[in-house]
Batch of 2 targets.
Target 1
Amino acid sequence: MKLPILAYGNKTLKVDCDAIATNSDDLNKLIDDMWETMEHAYGCGLAAPQVGETIQLFVVDSIVMYENADIDERKANFIEGDEGMRETFINARIIGKSDETWDEIEGCLSIPDIFKRVTRPWSITIEYLDRDFKAHTKTFHGTTARIIQHEYDHIRGVLFIDRLSAFTKKLIGTKLKKIMSGKIFTDYRMKQ
Ligand SMILES: [Zn+2]
């Protein structure tokens, strides 16, 4: 089932989300719905608070980014042998970040029509449970690491625009007000 995506301005997007204690049928249904919602909106990541659930859960698909990238972008944004991945992250914790950083344009399904450069570490190491509650510790790089960091921010109530300079944030002020007042068109269902 496709879920409405909460728009910028909704207070749920600012919540520091709770850890998930146990697996359940409801959780599995929510995960399925989040994948369906993200794919329908042509997103590459979606976090539970974006669909109104303040729990530490997000889904990431960097395969779609790899497939849509040209040869130069693949060379710049993916390491050798990395063709992206699809994964569900529960109770994730980033335990390591590279000193090396890079800038790339980001957007967010909750903040439509705004795309800005964000500086983030090139690599991260993350501990998480997958949807079967199997524990993993993995290191990701480039675009995959960027999407994970964007979604990881979401479950802590942080949006990518919070990482922009005061100057850039001022430039997008009018657009943000439009989103808050629901005066924006999207191909997917949004809710304020
Ligand atoms: Zn987002």
Note: The first strand starts at residue 5 and ends at 6.
Target 2
Amino acid sequence: MPAKELVRPCMDCKDAEAILDTRKRQLCGNCFKRFAGHKVLMRMSKYKMKKANRKTPKLLLPLSLGVSSTVLLHMINDDIERQLAKTFVNVGFELNILVVDPSTILAPDAKYDQAYEAVTKAFPKLTFTRLPFHSVFEYVPDMKEIIQEYAGSKITDDESRSNEDRLTAFRAVISTATSKADLDSVLLTRLVVGYAKGLGCETVIWGDSDTRLAAKTLAGVAKGRGASLTWSVSDGMSPWGVAFDFPLRDLSKPELEQFKSVCDDLSEIIVPDEPISDNVLTKNLSIDELMMRYVRTQGEKYRGVMANVSRTANKLESTTASDDALCPLCGGHVGNVKGNSGVTVANQSSDNYSSKFCYGCMRSRPEATC
Ligand SMILES: [Zn+2]
Ligand SMILES: [Zn+2]
């Protein structure tokens, strides 16, 4: 049979039309999926190493139903399916998936129910759990004391109310967009970790692209949370005894969007990002949103620079002593932190709370004026 007449052959298989461009190469959909999936599987391969007396590691994947975490789930599931079809099966780990219902974080919307139903159908062999955001009170037992001390006179946490009302009351006293987004992400991390610990998971597999890691790095420094970068964007142990791992760190957000575009079965699941509107006043955006915008727009022009930001952050090591006091809210170090974590923190607040919570949390506190 004569060779296929191809207008623009894929540079890998040379047997199909190239449909997308990535890193100066033109690839067909299948070759792109293999290229991107390989980057994640390389990072996941450490869980397949058999060690004597080692129990199968339990991993938790928090799924937001957005592009990045859903693509990560798809890639890992593909590998599990491939393994299960073999004679010598080596999945290497037990995977649990947690969806913190976006309707309880953002605003109620039926699209999240549909996406959740679609994802559980698409991956029938995996175990899914869906929790509302306010279950942070269940999974982090000292949340009541933390909130009370943190918000001080601004709030009286009333345990006789529903957890939903308690969380709403707490979130309502936080004034700026930056502080709201900052504390939401702290609470979300605490909930995910609390659930992971309850399940006996040793590692949380986060679905952050390298674009997002770069944005988190820049935002973290701007918000006075530079000292937490050693675990919030780096692979390693978190302050709560559960490791954090970021297997999408070699792929950018646009590449994950490309992956989605060549995977028909993901279109029903993924809830697309809200489009970036130019009409929103910059002052109404949180630092996290601003940084994500900045990295998205500049990252397309200067991909190497953005990749370098997250790669450099991944090399940071904590230089603080392990017996240093940790912030009861976010787990960051309290007090003066020097060394390669990049921030010297001064306690600016005059009240007695300052000794307990870290600088980053103090800045988001209801009374804080800085
Ligand atoms: Zn190809
Ligand atoms: Zn803190």
Note: The chain has one domain: 53-319.
